Every structure is written in structure tokens, then in C-alpha cells.
Amino acid sequence: MNLQQHLLDYTLRLGDNGLILSQRLGEWCGHGPVLEQDIALTNIALDLLGQARMLLAYAGELEGLNHTDDDLAFFRDAHQFRNVLLVEQPNGDFAHTVVRQLLFDTYNFYNYQALTHSTDERLAAIAEKSLKEVTYHLRYSSEWTIRLGDGTETSHKKMQEAIDDLWMFSGELCTPNATDTALAEAGIAPDLHDIDRLVQAKLKAVLEEATLSIPENSWMQSGGKEGRHSEHLGFMLAEMQHIQRTYPGLQW
After folding, report:
1. Which CATH class is domain 3-217+229-246?
2. Residue 198: its pLDDT value, please?
């Protein structure tokens, strides 16, 4: 791929991460453990959706085929999505949702913070606009990780189980592929090795305060960046895309 294609691939990935995680969090609407957290998760979902729209709109321009952000959201098949595997994992219980959010938010915060210095002015502007939101997201997931991890015996047990289940999806976030390497060399995207050091330090500090343990098994799942996804994404897209695929161009 040339640099333009790498930029398209990267922008799609960032947009797809936000879109898919937003859809997952939206599933909590009306089902949260308490009203305040129901609203908080929905608001985070809306933040991520807004970021996804900006990124997918930019991806459509880079692609040059007159695709809108809606086109890219509703008319691509699962193998065309570039989101990491973590964000498509099912919600599970509240502990699993909090841990999934912590793992993603930690990466997302440091990545967007670095992207504000991107040589690509459009990406830098999107990152700058999104940084206040992702800062709040990280604070929210960190505080709930600590509260539940260092809470009751039951909440601690559920949080540790969630970390044990989801940790294997965290490595993909900061493992560079050809796109990450090419864009880092061009100053467009940050070096993921630098981001990884910040992410690991933050996660270690939060989990230690939460009295939770990092799993000893270091094996990591991967493939989402290249379009190889779990079965969960297909089921999600079938639901998310149903109306637009049944009635293309439908307007309310």
C-alpha cells in the first residue's frame, strides 16, 4: 500500500473502533445497573459515535468514491471493518463492560493525545476535538475499576474474572502492523511502542490500586486490524445494518 492507502486504512480503524464500541455501549441503554450509570454509558456511546462520524467522513474523502460516513457504517461487510477485536466483544456483565472500557480508553487517550501532533491536519483536528471526551472516558473507567476491584468480595471476583477474560484482546491495540509503521515514519501516527509504554504504566497503576492482578498468560489475540474478526461482529452488524440494508437510503 502507498501512504494514502495506509492513511485510509488507519482512519477507518479509528472510526470503526469508535463505531463498534459505541454500538456495544448502546446496548446498555435501559439496562444499566442503576440509572446514573445507564446514562453515563449511553453518553460515552454518543461521544464515540460522534468521533466515529468525523473519522469515517474523512475516510470517505480519502477513498474518493463519494461514500459518506453512513455508507461506510451500514454497507460494509464484517471483513471490511478494521476495528480491533476488543471493542466487538459482548458486554457480558457490568464488570466486563468496565474492563473492556478501561483497556480501550487507556490506549485511546494516549493515542489521541499523540495524534494532536500529527502532520495530517485533519487527524490532528479530530484528535484535538475528541481529547476532552476521551479524557473523561478514561477517568470514568479507571474510577469504576478501582471502586469495584477494591470493593466487595463479589465485585472484586467479577472484575478479576473480566480482566482474565479480556486481557488477551488488549495487546492488539499497541501492536503495530504495516500501516502503523508507515504512518509513524511519516509523522502521521504515533509510534505504538511509545504508546504501549504509557498504556502499560497506566494500567499497572490502576489495577494495583484496584487490588487486581494482570494475567500471567501473555498470549494475545489479533487480526481485527486486517479484517479478521470474531463471530460477534457479524451478529452485531446484522442488527445494526438491518434497516439501511432493507430500505437503502431511508430517511426519517
Report:
1. mainly alpha
2. 98
